Each structure stands twice: as structure tokens, then as C-alpha cells.
Amino acid sequence: METGFKKFFTTLVETPSPSGYEQKAQKVYRDFVSKYADDVKTDVHGNVIAFKKGTGKLKVMVSGHVDEIGFMINYIDNDGYLYVKIIGGLDTSLLPGLRVNIYNKKGIVRGVFGKIPIHIMSPESKNQMPKIYDLWIDIGAKDKKDAEKRVSVGDVVTFSPGLEDLSNDLVTTKATDNKVGVFVAATILHHLSKEKVAANVYSVSSVQEEVGLRGARTSSYGIDPDVGIAIDVTVASDHPGTDKKRLGDICVGKGPVLAVGPNINPKVFELLNKAAKNKKIKVQLDIEARITGTDANAIQVSRSGVATGLISVANRYMHSPNEIISLKDLSEASILLTEFIRILDDSTDFIPK
């Protein structure tokens, strides 16, 4: 991956953006796309929409959601320990001992998720997943008054940020779900910046996907696109404990993943495969027999309907503090989507036949 692109991606994943609190990450996206778009605007919901004018009338919307899972401080007890509610969905068994960032108006406060040590747990509780209200965040406060000098009820919390290179072009970090999609939505504008294409391109960094696909729903209604492509991550099945009979064979590092099923327009799927062949990119298939649970679901049923596709990047350990993706998969997803846009024009027929 190019140095400039990797720096952009690293900044994206390290910038906090729990659902409903995406503004800081949206600024990162806005600063990047403003160099390549004809117009950039932010709607009342917080979606950022970057527009590149085409030579035709066809409107293509590409959407990656910028929000990530996180927490909100719900209560501070008399001893200065913080209790939280979860934004989005996660496995609470991952939390004990994790370091987190708390974002207060005064700055960032570091903390650690605490729980009762195994030495004094009851036999019954040792085999139970902890409930979020059985855990707390310790910021080293003397008492409630001391804690309230640094944090407040309502402050948002994320996993500790940071991106680390592994081997074979793999990286680990929080929030690849779904800074991956934002990266692709942004970098296609870079790839197309010196070209004229027929399609009018709307690159969207959407909000609040993790709490109900809300940003994609409102932005697609406002744009009213002919074609909509969601970019997200999908669960990898290439590690111990997964059932490929149920999940299919999805591997990190073996190429972008194209979804197929009732949520996906057949012509869009065909053209995405054509784009992959044009660029000699190997793709994997994600069989989605129902709805996908991504922005594609909201985009497809906007207004009178949108021809919809879904490009994903395989992700190990989704909704954890250390997700793993391939930078090669990520770059190829951007190249594939760019080529898809190039081959569209006003004569492209998306009516299933």
C-alpha cells in the first residue's frame, strides 16, 4: 500500500468515532476527499458526501460507514469507578484488562476495564460471560470527586487505538469495521481524480450503521442514486473455531469479497465481477441468502429501489480490540470499485431480466 494511503488509513482507525460521535473521523475523511471532489458537504445527520461530477446522468453512490463500536459512561460510583453502556454489539468477555481511551472535553483519559479476579470468583460465575454492568473502568481516581475532575457521565470510550503491522501484509487494529469502507470510498476519488467518467459519483462516509444502518438510509434518500455500492468488512472463516459449512470459505489475504443474494442486484454483481477480471483481481464470494446486515440493506430499499452491490474485506476477530485485515485486500477493493465506476454509463441497464 502506498505510504500516503497507509497514513490516511492509520489516521482513520486511530481517530475515535463511536456511533453518534463520528465528527472527528469525518474531518479526517473530509480533509482527504476535498482534494479530489468537486463538492463536499455534511448533512444534518452527520454523513459526509463527496461528489465528483460525471459526463452523464447516472448517479452512483458508494458508502462506507465511519462509526465504530464503543461505550458511554453511564455512572460514576463513590470510589471513582466508571460504569458504561455499550454502543453497538460486542463480546463482553473480551473486556476485562483492556486499556481504553475516554474522550472528555478536557482531553483523553486512559483507563482499564476491571472485574473481580478469578481467585475470588464463585464457581458458577467462572463459566459465565460477564454482563457489562459487572465490569467497570478504573482511571486511578481516589474517589468520585476526583474522577469527575477528569471525566463526565456521557463521555464516550473506545478501545485503545493503534495500528500494528503483522506479517504477509496483514495489520491489526481496532475499527477496521468499518474504516475499511471509508478508505475505499475516499480513495476511489483519488484514482478517478484525473479522469472523466460518465457516472456522477457520490462518495459517502456514513454514520450510525452499528445502531441501525441510519446514515446509509438518510444519505441514500437524499442522493436518490441509480446504483449503490456498500463497502464493509465480512467475517473471515480462516481461523480455528469457525464452521465453513455455515460461513463459507472466506480468507484474509485472498482478495475482496463480493456478496451475492437477494440484497444484491444481478447486473451490479455481474459488472463487479467484470471489473475484477479487467484488473485481474481474484475475488471471493459471500453467499447472503437473506439481507446482508450492512448499508447495502438500507440502500437497496431507498425510495423506489436502488440497484445495489456489496464489496467486503475479510476480517478476523470482528468487533474486538484487535481485528485483522489484509492491506492487499483493502487496496484491491478500491481498485475494483474504481474500475466498476469506469465501465458504467447512461445506457447501463440494471433491470433484472
Defining traits:
six-stranded antiparallel β-sheet; 9 helices; 353 residues; Elongation Factor Tu (Ef-tu), domain 3; 2 domains; Aminopeptidase; single chain; alpha+beta
Compact description:
By secondary structure, this protein is an alpha+beta fold. It has helices at 3-14, 23-33, 144-148, 176-192, 214-223, 244-247, 266-278, 295-300, 327-342, and strands at 39-42, 48-52, 59-65, 70-76, 82-87, 99-104, 107-114, 136-138, 156-159, 164-165, 170-173, 200-206, 227-235, 257-260, 284-287, 307-315, 323-326. It has an 8-stranded mixed beta sheet, with helices on both faces. A 6-stranded antiparallel beta sheet has the order 5-4-9-6-7-8.
Could you explain how this protein is built, in words?
By secondary structure, the chain is an alpha+beta fold. The strands form three sheets. It has an eight-stranded mixed beta sheet with strand order 1-2-12-3-13-16-14-15, with helices on both faces. The protein has a six-stranded antiparallel beta sheet with strand order 5-4-9-6-7-8. It has helices at about 5-15, 25-35, 145-150, 175-190, 215-225, 245, 265-280, 295-300, 325-340; strands spanning about 40, 50, 60-65, 70-75, 80-85, 100-105, 105-115, 135-140, 155-160, 165, 170-175, 200-205, 225-235, 255-260, 285, 305-315, 325. The chain is built from nine helices and 17 strands. Strand 10 and strand 11 (about 170-175) form a beta hairpin. Helix 1 (about 5-15) packs antiparallel against helix 4 (about 175-190), helix 4 (about 175-190) crosses helix 9 and helix 7 crosses helix 9. It has two domains: about 5-70 and about 175-340, Aminopeptidase, CATH 3.40.630; about 70-160, Beta Barrel (Elongation Factor Tu (Ef-tu), domain 3), CATH 2.40.30.40. The chain starts with a helix and ends in an 11-residue tail after the last helix.
